[in-house]
Amino acid sequence: MDDKFIKELREISRDDRRRSEFMIQGMKETLEERKQQNILKRWIRRKKAEKKISQRFNQDPHPDQK
C-alpha cells in the first residue's frame, strides 16, 4: 500500500462504512501487485516471512532457568 492510501485511510472515521470498503479495495490492489511480481521476488518475500515466524516461535521464553 502506498502513502496516499495510508493517508486517506487515516482521514476516514473508524465508524464509517467506507473505511472497511476502502481497506478491502486496498488489500485487493496489494495482492494484485504481488501477483504481478516475478517469481524470485515472491519467493524471497515468502522466505523472509517464514524466517520471521520461525524466529518468533523458536525463541527461548526463559533463558535463565535451567
Layout of helices and strands:
Layout: H1 3-11, H2 17-36, H3 39-58
Task: Describe it.
The protein has helices at residues 3-11, 17-36, 39-58. The protein is an all-alpha fold and 66 residues long. The N and C termini lie far apart (45 Å). It has one domain (3-58). The chain is built from 3 helices and no strands.
Radius of gyration: 18 Å
Class inferred from helices and paired strands: mainly alpha
String of helices and strands: HHH
The residue fraction in helices comes out at over 70%
Q: Estimate the global geometry from the Cα principal axes.
A: flat
Largest sheet: none
Into how many domains do the coordinates divide? Answer: 1
Show unreliable segments.
none
Number of helices: 3
Give the DSSP E fraction (strand runs of 2 or more residues).
under 5%
Distance between the termini: 45 Å
- Average pLDDT taken over every residue: 79
DSSP, total strands? 0
In short:
By secondary structure, this protein is an all-alpha fold. It has helices at residues 3-11, 17-36, 39-58.
Task: For this entry, give a set of tags.
mainly alpha
